[in-house]
Design brief:
This protein has helices at 16-26, 46-51, 78-83, 103-115, 130-141, 165-170, 214-221, 230-245, and strands at residues 2-8, 33-39, 56-61, 75-76, 88-91, 97-100, 123-126, 146-149, 173-176, 202-205, 225-227. It is an alpha/beta fold.
C-alpha cells in the first residue's frame, strides 16, 4: 500500500482526501494507494509524521507550512527553489525528501481560464504566504506587474488601507492568496473597496471551499470576471500525482 497525504495546521476545509479517494477508485488503485489528512500543530512534527507513517511515498503541504517545510527536506526542484515554497514532497526510494511546487500548474491553468485572451495592466496579490509566492512567480512569467497587499505594512508593498480608487483602477487582476473567506469562516472577505470594481476587473480566489466565496460574490455583483480555487486544486493535485509517480 502506497500512502500519500496532506499536512497542515487545520484541514477541516480540505477536499484533497475526497479527491484522491475518488481518483483511486476511478483508476482501480483503491487497493494499492491511500491518502490521509494529517494535522500538525507545528511544522517540526513532520519528522515524527514521516517516521511513523509506513510506506509513505509523498505528501502535499498547505497553510502555514509551505515555506517552513523547506529545512526538513534534502533537495528542491528548480521551480520550488526559485519560488521559495513547497506544496508537494516526494519520498525517494533511498529516503531522500524532495520538494516541488505544483501550485504553479494550477495557477497557470486558472489564469488561462480567467483571462482568456484578455490582457491586464497589473495585479494586486492579497497575502504574503507560500501560495502568494507561487502566484508572483507565474505573474512574473507572464510579465504582469504586481503589487503585494498585506495587513502587515512591513510585509507588502501596500496595506489594505492603501487601496484607493486610483490603485484599484490601475490593477485589473486581483488574486486572493490569503485564507480569508475559507470554511468555516465563509462570511469573511478580504478588506478591499469592492465598490471600485468594474467589468474590467478579473478576480481569482485561491480559496476553494466554499466554491463561491464572499470575495468572488461581491466582485461578480460589480460585473467582475471571477474564478475560484477549484480548478487550481485539481490541477495541482494531478501535477503532484505525476511527481510522485514520474
Amino acid at each position: 500500500m502506497r500512502r500519500y497525504g496532506l499536512i497542515g495546521r487545520v484541514l477541516g476545509h480540505s477536499f484533497s482526501a475526497k479527491y484522491f479517494a475518488e481518483k483511486f477508485e476511478r483508476e482501480g488503485l483503491d487497493g494499492e494507494c491511500s491518502y490521509g489528512l494529517f494535522e500538525l500543530s507545528d511544522v517540526a512534527c513532520v519528522e515524527d509524521f514521516m517516521a511513523s507513517t509506513p510506506h509513505l511515498a509523498g505528501f502535499n503541504v498547505t497553510i502555514p507550512y509551505k515555506q517552513q517545510i523547506i529545512p526538513y527536506l534534502n533537495s528542491l526542484s528548480d521551480e520550488a527553489r526559485n519560488i521559495g515554497a513547497v506544496n508537494c514532497v516526494k519520498i525517494m526510494p533511498d529516503g531522500e525528501r524532495r520538494g516541488y511546487n505544483t501550485d504553479v500548474d494550477g495557477i497557470r491553468l486558472s489564469l488561462d481560464k480567467l483571462l482568456g485572451g484578455a490582457t491586464v495592466d497589473a495585479a494586486l496579490v492579497l497575502g504574503t504566504g507560500g501560495a502568494a509566492q507561487a502566484v508572483q512567480y507565474v505573474l512574473a512569467e507572464r510579465d504582469i506587474p504586481f503589487t503585494i497587499v498585506s495587513r502587515d505594512r512591513a510585509k507588502g508593498n501596500l496595506s489594505y488601507d492603501d487601496l484607493s480608487r486610483e490603485v484599484m483602477a490601475e490593477h485589473h487582476l486581483i488574486v486572493n492568496t490569503s485564507p480569508v473567506g475559507m470554511y468555516p469562516h465563509v462570511e469573511d472577505a478580504p478588506d478591499i473597496p469592492y465598490d471600485c470594481l468594474t467589468d474590467r476587473h478579473y478576480m481569482f480566489d485561491l480559496v476553494y471551499n466554499p466554491p463561491l466565496t464572499r470575495f468572488l460574490e461581491r466582485g461578480a455583483r460589480r460585473g467582475a470576471h471571477t474564478i475560484s480555487g477549484l480548478d487550481m486544486l485539481y490541477a495541482q493535485a494531478e501535477a503532484a500525482w505525476r511527481v510522485w509517480n514520474g
